[in-house]
């Protein structure tokens, strides 16, 4: 009897050992995931998207060895909501407080890194993860923090965080038997910049491309050149990350996504519903799973990323995720338009930065929704009586400070360049319509042209139908709730609004009769960048 028991126990141990070995092998075959997220980098700043004055060989390498997407869009172009859409797989207007910038993100939302961790993945991030704002849980929604190693940056505006060394630390520390999911989030090209850093890099201002909504002068060209220096620094970090994977033999079993959360931090771009802010650079590499050099024209959105990564990891897509996986696009042998249904994107914004008042209500947003098709962009500005870049009284706070901003806001009506001020800071009509094939800078608004009335109405109807299907409060006539959601920076609000300040948590309770998400006790906001 004892012998039988011993044999049974020994057999059980052998089985469990065999099972664990098989499980380890299976996990090791699951793809690793590396997301490289730039901060405020425009699509047309990358070489493979046509940049002539900024060199991005490492980003371009990912595109050339994988797939380049020509129609990738953020859902809401500002750091907090953009990254929230990416991490949750939900559209911005489906995220309640997290549709706004610098929110208290509701604890009920699930993030794909956490879901992957629960399935056996090791997760981490360096640089900038989700933020700025308040989150719940033990770690940033992007993963466990790896930011201990610092360096001396080449210019004052560049972060001291050593992204590549922190990624190395993660790879060294990890259990090699388990797959990993890592968020490599640089702070570049977020402002501030070291002024005239381009001169130290011997950049030629004559090669700078100036957008049609900016005056073409030395000051603007210099500002754009300083921005380019930071984009090239970001690209060098991509090269170091690829080298870390390559030397460990991990490159080809790693899904690498490189993109940015929004466009460059300049007037009429960052935080605005125009082409250069929400149309993102987006490239994916995955060893021999993706045929090199493919160009995909299907429309994909940031909410589509989380379900794609879940499916690629062999997991069931969480029911909270409303985006649609594009794994089939990655694995396809085709280029061009693969799924005919992916022919448009929905975009929108609510409150971004503070600095806008309406009546006795502080911190109201500039709500807008838009639909982008292959040829047209239609925008509906719900509260077009408000200043789109923030109130002049508070310094147009929804636009980062810069030499370009200072130049434009100091112009007088009689100045020849005043039209550029109006494009960036002036009030806008309720409806806007642009032909993106001939007007990518969104200068010539066709919405009031009778020749486009039928098209304008068709796009408006399509947009509203889709938004109602997604239960967008703004499309359902309940959008004012977004203006009442609290922002996390109470002390900054006190300084800005002074005697007009009131506690937004109390105000929300007063108006809606229920408490919004409280700030976790002991929380210290680590990422204070806009």
Describe the structure in your own words.
It is a single chain. This protein has 530 residues and is α/β, with parallel strands linked by helices. The protein contains 16 helices and twelve strands. It has helices at 2-29, 57-64, 79-88, 112-118, 163-173, 197-200, 218-247, 275-278, 305-312, 327-331, 403-409, 418-425, 453-469, 481-484, 490-497, 504-512, and strands at 32-38, 67-73, 122-127, 180-185, 254-260, 279-280, 282-285, 294-301, 344-349, 368-373, 376-381, 431-435. Strands 1, 2, 3, 4, 5, 6, 7 and 8 form an eight-stranded mixed sheet that branches. It has a four-stranded antiparallel sheet with strand order 9-10-11-12, with helices on one face. Helix 5 (163-173) runs parallel beside helix 7 (218-247). It starts with a helix and ends in an 18-residue tail after the last helix.
